[in-house]
Amino acid sequence: MATVTLNQAQKTYPNGFKAIHGIDLKIEHGEFTVLVGPSGCGKSTLLRMIAGLEGISDGEIIIDDKVVNTVAPADRDIAMVFQNYALYPHMNNYGNMAYGLKNRGYSKAEIDAKVREAARILQLEDHLERKPRQLSGGQRQRVAMGRAIVRQPKVFLFDEPLSNLDAKLRVDMRLEIKNLQQRLGITSVYVTHDQVEAMTLADRLIVMNGGVAEQIGTPIDIYEKPASQFVAGFIGSPAMNFLKGKVSDDKKHVTVGDGVMLDLDHDVEAGRDVTVGIRPEHLELLKDGEGRINAGVRMVESLGAETLAYLDFGANADNVTLRLQGTHTFEKGEKLSLSVPASKIHLFDIESGQRI
Ligand code: ATP
Predict the structure, then answer these.
(1) Which terminus of the chain, N or C, has fewer Cβ atoms within 10 Å?
(2) Could you tell me which residue ranges the ABC transporter domain spans (predicted)?
(3) Which CATH architecture does the domain made up of 4-234 adopt?
(4) From CA 4, how far away is CA 186, in angstroms rounded?
(5) How many CB atoms lie within 10 A of CB 225?
(6) What pTM did the predictor assign?
């Protein structure tokens, strides 16, 4: 078990590009931390810095109580699982899992016990003699995990380990990884650009944007109280709706669209221009004329368990997404009457995008 601490960790690549702008973070013993963000936000760079595969330009990386800035990857007591598995094709799966132990001075019997235990945990016992190419993608990923487990490292690092798998297998492996991590209790850092994966796996989520940690918190905290419009738009699927709004003089309403007044329970100055955020699942469908928001149906997607309706709202035909449980049939152009509880309205500063 181990903690990982970053103190103002920074990375500038040799070409002068600053990929990480100074991140502070403490990852607790046994915690599953997920770095999530759009392509190019710096999540792989940060993970590789913890691994020692990229140098740190400024600040500190501490594993337990030891500053590891200049410690070689092999001496950091970490194990990394990659997207492309990085298995040796000419070795069988037993050999792949045993490889990292061989040059660490373990006896043959010790190696055998560790590999067989990992194979049992990962249900790979029947596949140890095969080569990686004789396995499915999911099994290969498990061998890669096995290779990490046998070393009993202080920290697991995962770099988009599921992105080469098909949708169903991704969900299965996601559950397996979570289960395994909880059982083994190994401090883990996991990189993904998939926000569903991030939400389901993380004890703590770090939403990155442009080399900065925009928000750090539990998945639910971040979903319920996104710190910025960027985070609000990135976490949650389908994405949060954003509308231009103006706070009324009595501060009890915010006006959106063509003068539609929504109830507000924020403490915000009168007359302020704001961005109003409403999650698709927080819009309520009411009987005709009962809701303040009237929007026309542009397109509908029926997913069985839920229905997504894409709507045009107001004179500017702002796009609004509505997410409803169950099956609904709407005609194209049909007007829907909607409302949203004041407690579900998010407000963001129009310039900085920060939560109000
Ligand atoms: P993705 O999801 O696409 O992998 P990421 O969030 O993991 O993205 P990084 O790979 O960490 O992003 O890259 C962060 C930024 O640093 C990007 O703008 C990238 O172009 C840049 N970058 C990465 N490696 C180098 C390098 N060796 N030299 C210069 N810039 C680099």
Answers:
(1) N
(2) 4-235
(3) 3-Layer(aba) Sandwich (3.40)
(4) 12
(5) 13
(6) 0.90
Of 315, 352, 112, 67, the closest CA to residue 229 belongs to 352
Q: Which tokens in the block code for residue 80? A: 């990394």
Distance CA 199, CA 196 (A): 5
CATH 3.40.50.300 residue window(s) in the chain: 4-234
What pLDDT, on a 0 to 100 scale, did the predictor assign at position 48?
Answer: 95
Strand partners, 157: 80, 189
53 CA to centre of ligand 1 in angstroms: 13
Does residue 47 have a pLDDT over 90? Answer: yes
Beta-carbon contacts of 313 under 8 Å, excluding residues fewer than 6 positions away, are 243, 257, 293, 294, 295, 296, 319, 320
Q: Decide whether any atom of ligand 1 lies within 6 Å of the 83 Cβ.
A: no
Closest CA to 217 of 62, 24, 33, 64: 33
- Residue 209 Cα, ligand 1 centroid: separation in angstroms? 12
Residue 315 has pLDDT above 80, yes or no: no
42 lines ligand 1 (CB under 6 A): yes
What is the C-alpha to C-alpha distance for residues 147 and 114, in angstroms, rounded to an integer? 10
Distance CA 292, CA 263 (A): 10
pLDDT digits (tens, 9 = 90+) for 199-242: 999 999 999 999 999 999 999 999 999 999 999 999 999 999 99
* DSSP at 252: S
In the chain, what is the straight-line distance between the N-terminal and C-terminal CA atoms, in Å?
Answer: 39
Numbered ranges of CATH 2.40.50.140 in the chain: 241-349
103 in ligand 1 pocket by Cβ < 6 Å?
no
Whose structure tokens read 């998010």? 346
Angle at 291 between CA 289 and CA 295, to 5 degrees: 85
Instruction: Please give the backbone phi and psi of residue 352, each rounded to the nearest 5 degrees, phi first.
Output: -85, -20
Which fold would CATH assign to domain 241-349?
Answer: OB fold (Dihydrolipoamide Acetyltransferase, E2P) (2.40.50)
**Rounded to whole angstroms, what are the CA distances from 294 to 17, 246, 312, 315, 335?**
47, 18, 9, 11, 6
Cα–Cα distance list, 238 to 173, 235, 260, 262, 320 (Å): 23, 9, 23, 22, 11
Question: Which ligand 1 atom sits nearest the alpha carbon of residue 44?
Answer: 7
Q: Counting every residue, how long is the chain?
A: 356
